[in-house]
Every structure is written in structure tokens, then in C-alpha cells.
Specification:
Blueprint: E1 2-6, H1 8-17, H2 24-34, E2 38-42, H3 52-61, E3 65-70, H4 74-83, E4 87-90, H5 110-122, E5 126-131, H6 135-144, E6 148-152, H7 154-157, H8 162-181, E7 185-189, H9 197-201, E8 208-211, H10 213-222, H11 224-235
Parallel strand pairs: 1-2, 1-8, 2-3, 3-4, 4-5, 5-6, 6-7, 7-8
Bound molecules: pyridoxine-5'-phosphate.
């Protein structure tokens, strides 16, 4: 199981004072040294955390994969084409949300998404779609030409009680199996933490888990390298 570490919230702390620290580039390098497989950053349209220049500096500094989370907005697509990250993950974006709330509705937006996937893939950027673990969304994603999906684990991580969590986990497993049967690479993420991630990591057909908030929060107490290593110990089988 691979681990992608989302470092957006290092930039959130920096933006709280509008200064230069903590630097997301240093964070990316520490995560890389601790053994994670990719660095994930979300360039939001409102630039509330990661800024354009951060991305270009991270791309230049790290050797592991850079996965850019992004909306399908024209301005952001143009930046992605200049940056050329290893991977782009298309996510829905609403101005007032605290974090990405639901998966991308590829069923409703398939024409637009297909166009953006084509543009990104033709720039040599592997494209992933962040979707809810539903068959209709997986089918629609497959039809856009994207070959990677990231299944939203928010339903599982926010589930109240053991039986609700179990049923969300089973739905996730079924979605992963279905995606794999179509030949899609299946990643997963959102809301995963030191308590709930290992059950998801046991779904062996998942390629990578993308985790941000819990790792950056843990880093406040044990340092970023330690927080990444602790998560790796939980999810690497
Ligand atoms: N995957 C995607 C597509 C996301 O948008 C986010 C949040 O930026 C994450 C994973 C990480 O979520 P969390 O910060 O809850 O671990």
C-alpha cells in the first residue's frame, strides 16, 4: 500500500500569519525522507493554502511523485499544464467548504470532465478522478478515459458506530473490486487517521491512500517525519 501525504495544512499554518513559515517545500522533503510515496497538494481556486509558487518549488525539490489536486476550472488546468505534475486528481470545489465535501459528480459532468482529462493526459499528466464509491460514478469515470480513480473515504471515516462503519467499508471494498475489474487503478482517501486507516489499508487492491489532516495534526506533537513513519507502519503490509 502506497502513502501519499497531503501537505496543504502546512501552508494553512503559514497563511494564518501571511509569512514564510512553515515552508511546504521543507515539509515535502521531510515526508519524502520519511518514506512516503507521493506528495499531494491542492491548489484551490481561492488559494487559501498552497500557492502557485509552492507547487513549482516542490516539483523542483522532490523526487517522489507529485499529485496535484485541482478543480476543472480553466485557470487551474492551465497552471497544471505548465507545472506538469506526475498526476492530477480532479476534485469538486466549493468556495465555502472547509474541505472537499463530496466526490466529483462525473455522471452529471461527464462531457466537461472528459475534455479536461484529455487536455491533462495529452500534457503527459496521469489523471485521477475523486469520486464517491458508487458503481455509476466508476462507470462514468471509466468512460472519460481517466485510468485512475480515488474513492472518497469520508462516508466511512465519518460513520457513527461499528455497524455503519462496517457497511461503508464493505461498500468501499465492492467499489474497489469493481474498479479493478474495469482495469482502473483505485486509490482512496479523505478523513483517514491513525485509528481508521489500517482497515482501509487491508483492502489489498487499493494502490495508494492519500492522507493529510491527521498526519499534519500528529506532526505538531511528534514531528512530521515521525508522523509519516507512524502512518506508514499502520498501512504498509
Ligand atoms: N484526497 C482528496 C481528493 C482530498 O481532497 C483530500 C483533502 O484535501 C484528501 C485526500 C486528504 O484528506 P484528509 O486531509 O482528510 O486526510
Amino acid at each position: 500500500m502506497k502513502l501519499g501525504v497531503n501537505i496543504d495544512h502546512v501552508a494553512t499554518i503559514r497563511e494564518a500569519r501571511g509569512g514564510i513559515e512553515p515552508d511546504p517545500v521543507s515539509a515535502a522533503l521531510l515526508c519524502e525522507m520519511a518514506g512516503c510515496d507521493s506528495i499531494v497538494c491542492h491548489l484551490r481556486e481561492d488559494r487559501r493554502h498552497i500557492q502557485d509558487a509552492d507547487l513549482f518549488r516542490i516539483k523542483k525539490s522532490v523526487k517522489i511523485r507529485l499529485n496535484l489536486e485541482m478543480s476543472a476550472a480553466r485557470e487551474i488546468v492551465a497552471i497544471a499544464r505548465r507545472l506538469r505534475p506526475d498526476q492530477a486528481t480532479l476534485v469538486p470545489e466549493k468556495r465555502r467548504e472547509l474541505t472537499t465535501e463530496g466526490g466529483l459528480d462525473v455522471v452529471a459532468l461527464k462531457k466537461k470532465i472528459r475534455g479536461v482529462v484529455e487536455v491533462l493526459e495529452s500534457a503527459g499528466i496521469e489523471t485521477s478522478l475523486f469520486i464517491d464509491p458508487e458503481k455509476s460514478q466508476i462507470d462514468a469515470s471509466f468512460r472519460t478515459g481517466a485510468r485512475i480513480i480515488e474513492l472518497h473515504t469520508g462516508g466511512y471515516s465519518n460513520a457513527k458506530g461499528v455497524s455503519a462503519a462496517r457497511s461503508r467499508l464493505n461498500a468501499l471494498k465492492a467499489a474497489v473490486r469493481y474498479a479493478r475489474s474495469l482495469g482502473l487503478v483505485a486509490n482512496a482517501g479523505h478523513g483517514l487517521n491513525y485509528e481508521n486507516a489500517s482497515a482501509v489499508a487491508r483492502i489489498s487492491e487499493i494502490n495508494e491512500l492519500n492522507i493529510g489532516h491527521s498526519i499534519i495534526s500528529r506532526a505538531v506533537f511528534v514531528g512530521l517525519g515521525g508522523a509519516v513513519k507512524e502512518m506508514l507502519a499502520l498501512i504498509k503490509w
